[in-house]
Design a protein that fits this description.
about 120 residues; alpha+beta; Alpha-Beta Plaits; four-stranded antiparallel sheet; about 20% helix
């Protein structure tokens, strides 16, 4: 079956206040458990904030490492799910049920499968 990455983006300014974070965590746990129960879940994980990120570039043999993400943007990549479902429409349907979908966005991208080589 095809696999799709559900790349979860959101603006940290839209994160719930501290007193609502436990409820938000419960929504994500329920969502993840529903993916597992449906058999679609392959893997997934939240990502640390952009302050923990580093960007690596090699130009002319010279390696440069900079702190933070590659581009400045309000929305950051916060995590991902890798799902195994029959169609991209099924993956889009799963993305539309994410707890942050009202304030963030989810990029649904097919995973490339290379033919096996000897």
């Amino acid at each position: 079956m095809p696999q799709y990455m559900l790349l979860i983006y959101g603006d940290p300014a839209d994160a719930p206040p501290a007193d609502q974070q436990e409820a938000q965590y419960a929504e994500w746990l329920n969502y993840t458990n529903a993916l597992v129960a449906s058999g679609a879940m392959v893997s997934g994980a939240p990502l640390e904030g952009t302050d923990a990120a580093q960007t690596v570039r090699v130009r002319g043999g010279d390696t440069k490492v900079t702190d933070g993400p590659f581009t400045e943007t309000k929305e950051i990549l916060g995590g991902y799910y890798l799902v195994d479902v029959p169609t991209i429409e099924d993956a889009v349907s799963l993305a539309a049920k994410m707890p942050n979908i009202e304030t963030g966005s989810v990029e649904v991208r097919p995973v490339v499968v290379f033919p096996e080589t000897g």
